[in-house]
Fold this protein.
Amino acid sequence: MSANVTQEKAGRKIVMTIDLSMKGRTSSPSQHSYTWKDTVLYALGVGAKKSEVDYLFEGRGPRVLPTYAVVAKQTLLHDLLLQSGCDLRLVVHYGERVTACCPLPTHGTLVTTATVREVYDMKRFALLIVDTRTEDDGGKLLAETSSSILLRGEGGFGGPTAPRAWSSVEKPVNCPPAFSIEETTLPEQALLYRLSGDVNPLHADDDIAKNAGFERGALMHGLCTFGFMARHVAKAVCDGDSTRLHSIDGQFRRPVWPGETLVTEGWLVGPDAVALQVRVKERDEVVISSASATLFVK
């Protein structure tokens, strides 16, 4: 079954189609083999500095950020979007959740399967929810993720409405954050992050980004900002030990451009939960909201 949506674009009617039968579809397993160099490159892509040498030096492992799990599913997610029949130029990453079951190995082969959990109707948009399971090559579960993908122009097909709740950890009202970490991104941040697998030209070519409606040019990946947030939480509440992060999630609200300053703010909610948001300092705009992290209890 497909959904046909007619809309106006540049003075002409166009029909866009998504495959609603994707709901419940599970992919074949996808293998991602990697070495310590790949995890270090990812850490640099999400802003790791010399002071965080545990992520950057093979003599220290290196320690692997749990959000590296998003790299293992990149090809699967791209293939599912192609199968959906959507226009990839109109795809927006809406939110992400990563749950770590145990620390990721410093090298090896990750085996990931993806399942389309739901296709929601958001009037002008469709919202695709894709869950993944990542195991080692021996079958041990390492991590689970959930991606929320907006398909612009694909709504109005009469499907279920997305639930309002996003995170189970709510930010306290009228309460200052327990911590705030500020970090300026590199002008080359998106170019560095894309080397970990997401080579969408929106993040590299100013002309392509402007033609897609981003007047300031090539923008950062939402998952790059997400990785900054994970590092900041580990620094603030885990003494820099990201292996204590059990889960982290957030909703992408605004684009971020390389060179802007990210400010991650956190509110402690009990002994093992943190409510989060990320702002861009220069614009004072929240770019990741409804965010949270949970910790492994010692």
